[in-house]
Amino acid sequence: MSTGPNTASGTAEAAHPLPSSQSMPDQTRSLAPPAFAGFDTDGYPGDAHMQVWKKTSPYVFAGYYLHAPCHGDRGWMGHRAALAAMGWNLVPIYVGQQVAGVSPCKSSILTAAQGHADGLDCCKTMASEGFAKGSFAYLDVERTDAYPATLRAYIAAWISTVAAGGFGPGVYCHKFNAPNVRATVQAALTASAQTKPRFWIVGGVIADFDIQTSRPSASGIALADMWQCPQSVERTYGGVKLPIDEDLATHNDPAAPDPVPAPPGIPSTT
Fold it and tell me: Can you say how many angstroms the Cα of residue 159 is from the centroid of all Cα atoms in its chain?
């Protein structure tokens, strides 16, 4: 999941940006629930550009890159409050350790101990950035042909640590790896029956992705809460052009905490 000028400090999805001469045409602002459009780009566009896009683009949420082992750029850090004041819903992304060779990142410490340490780091960063307890953070796991036991141990430790720290655990992963990742996440949360993880899927058929008509399940993964278009694009709104990945979600705020169940006998307000 890496779009924009900072690919060396982030990770790279298999898709490549379209040349500007072949950029896909802008979609209209109309979008009917339950699908909501958003975007992510690893380099922070700047407050002024984000303000323009909030007023002119069809997107209701944006990926928010936390400083992490495979995302050394701190560009997004410190901007949560300003972006929230503009009206953006923000989706925290933690680009953790990766299988060696799947991305430009060289950090590949795939152990349970490192997963626990990175989970603690994610919780600390979420709190310092002002995200409320219960908010979801998404561990970025780049596509890998093999799914080694070391990756399984790392993901499980990260997931359980984030959940224990009071935040919602989510995972961004490729459709190809989704079954294995799901099994790992579910096993890691067996002691937390009320914790429902969220899954952000990339992959699928480019032609099936349309921010006006598609749903995350059209990725080919029924459990998907979010779907990232397999093809990076360039978009221009309000005179501001940005290289982005487009996303669809079943919720207009994919990082929002789960509703608190009403006590027995009291109707839920959600």
Answer: 14
Tell me the DSSP string of 127-186. HHTTPPTT-EEEEE----S---HHHHHHHHHHHHHHHHTTSEEEEEEEGGGHHHHHHHHH
Half-sphere exposure of 83 (CA within 13 A, CB side): 25
* pLDDT grade for 10, boundaries at 50, 70 and 90: very low
DSSP one-letter string for 71-102: B---TTTT-HHHHHHHT-EEEEEEE----TTS
> Of 46, 53, 56, 55, nearest to 82 (Cα)?
46
Does the domain at 36-249 match CATH 3.20.20.80? Answer given as: yes
The answer, yes or no, to whether residue 260 has pLDDT greater than 80, is: no
Annotate 22-90 with DSSP letters as a single string: GPPPPPPS---TT-EEEEE-SS---HHHHHHHHHHSS-SEEEEEPPBTTB---TTTT-HHHHHHHT-EE
Tell me: the pLDDT tens digits for 130-175? 999 999 999 999 999 999 999 999 999 999 999 999 999 999 999 9
pTM across the whole model: 0.86
Listed by start position, the domains of the chain span 36-249
At 215, is the secondary structure helix, strand, or coil? coil
Q: Report CA dihedral (92, 96, 101, 102) to the nearest 10 degrees.
A: -30
Q: What distance in Å separates the CA atoms of residue 20 and residue 233, rounded to the nearest whole number?
A: 8
Question: Which two structure tokens, joined as six digits, stand for 100?
Answer: 């060696």
Q: Nearest Cα to 200, choosing from 39, 24, 11?
A: 39
**AA identity, residue 90:** L
